[in-house]
Amino acid sequence: MTHDDLTYFNSRAIAERRRADHAVCPEAAAIHRQLAEAYRARVVNRGGDGVRGHG
Known about the structure:
This protein has helices spanning 3-22, 26-45. The chain is an all-alpha fold. Helix 1 runs antiparallel to helix 2. The termini are close together.
């Protein structure tokens, strides 16, 4: 996984957490939290879930 991939996934995790914080619908907030956690896990695990970056 490249540095650009990690930067992207971290940025997406932050954005999804913000969306969860501002969501009006509880279901939408839950989905945004799940997405944030999935992106965060990719950064923490550096792609250890088997997904590899390009390059």
